Amino acid sequence: QVQLVESGGGLVQPGGSLRLSCAASGFTCSSYVMSWYRQGPGKERELVATVSSGGDIVNYAGSVKGRFTISRDNAKNTVALQMNSLKAEDTAVYYCYAAVGYWGQGTQVTVSS
Predict the structure, then answer these.
(1) Strand partners, 6
(2) pLDDT of residue 28
């Protein structure tokens, strides 16, 4: 059974940090580009960051560049998103996506004082 399971979300104050993790099972994610998306309240789902299958090429949305870092550990079949200097506008449900069409269930990130 194919699964992507996100973890690490929660409530954090503005300026704080969180690290999201995505664990893949039922397939080998090392073969695919992996991405993080997010969907804020009343907003469309948007692409946050992408990492190539080998982990050597990364891309970020302009709104998170310099604050977020995407990485992957192909040996562990996991992808991570380190989020620093969080802002209220980063509040969203964050989803892991494998470029073969698989989505995780999402994890809530709330940035509030």
Answers:
(1) 22
(2) 86
Q: Average pLDDT, stretch 36-49? A: 97
Bridge partners of 35, per DSSP, are 50, 97
Residue at 97: amino acid letter: Y
Q: How far apart (Å, rounded) are the C-alpha atoms in residues 83 and 36? A: 12
Segment 83-97, tens digit of pLDDT = 999 999 999 999 999
Question: Could you give the dihedral angle defined by the CA atoms of residues 42, 33, 5 and 106, in that order, rounded to the nearest 10 degrees?
Answer: 0
Residue 67 makes CB contacts below 8 A (sequence gap 6+) with 83, 84, 85, 86
> Could you tell me the pLDDT band of residue 31, with boundaries at 50, 70 and 90?
confident
Distance of CA 101 to the CA centre of its chain: 15
* Percent of the chain topping pLDDT 70: 100
